Here is the input.
Amino acid sequence: MNEMEARRYRILGVLGKGGFGKVYRASLEGPEGFYKDVAIKLLRDSDVPESTLQRFRDEARILGLVRDRAILSVDPPTRLGGRWAVVMEYVDGVSAARLMRLQPMPPPVALEVIQEVARALDKVYRHPGPDGAQLHLIHRDIKPGNIQVTPSGEVKLLDFGIARAKFAQREAETTRHIGGTFGYIAPERLSGFEGPEGDVYSLGVVLHVLITGDKPTRPGQFAPRRHYVERTPHVLMVLEFAKAMMR
Here is the structure.
C-alpha cells in the first residue's frame, strides 16, 4: 500500500487465501480516534486478466445490491497499493465447519442456522436488480465452511465468488464452470441445470452434516460422476431425518 492508504488501513492478519489472492483482517482508522474492523479482499496481482477482474467486480456488485443481516455489506471495488480490492464487513465468528469438527450440532441449533441462511437466500433471489426485475441470485457453493456463526448467534453467509445473478440485459456470474464443492452440489448441476433448487439441496446436505457429523458423498478416483448422481440422497430424506432427530 502507498503512504496514504497505509494511514487509512492497518493490516491485522490473514483471514483466508485462494487462487484470486488473500482476505485480510484490517482496521479502518480515521480522524478523532475513529476505528473500525474490516475485511479486505485483495487480488493477487496488479495486472489481472479482464475475465478475472470482471468476476471480482460481479461479486462486489452482487453483494452491494442486497441488504440483509445474513449477507456481508461491502464497499465498491477500489485499488490499494496498485491492486484491486474490496473492503467489506468483518465478521468475528467461526465457521459452521469448525463448530461441526468439535461435535455435531444439536438439531434445533442446526435448524436455526439453516433457516437463517434459507431466509436470506430467498430474500436475495427475489430482490430487485438495477432494472427492477428480480435478481435471481443463486449462491452455488453452500457448505459449512461458507457459513459463519458469531458469538452472539448471528449467522452470515460468505463467499459469493461463484454466485450467479441477472443484471439488466446480461447475466453476471463469477464462473462459467460447474464450480462448488462436491458432496454439496445438487445432482442436476452436474448435468448443466442451474436454479435456486440447487441451493436448497445444498442446504439440506449441510443440515445433515451438521447434525450427524458425517461427510457427504463425493466422487473419488474410483467413483465416476454418474455414481455420485445416482447415490446422492434426496433432500426430502435429509429433512425427514432432521425431524426424526428432534422427536
Remarks:
- Strands lie at 9-17, 21-29, 35-43, 78-80, 83-89, 94-95, 147-149, 155-157, 164-167, 170-173.
- The helical segments are 3-8, 50-65, 96-102, 107-126, 196-212, 225-231, 235-246.
- The chain has two domains: 3-89, 94-246.
- Confidence is low (pLDDT under 50) at residues 219-233.
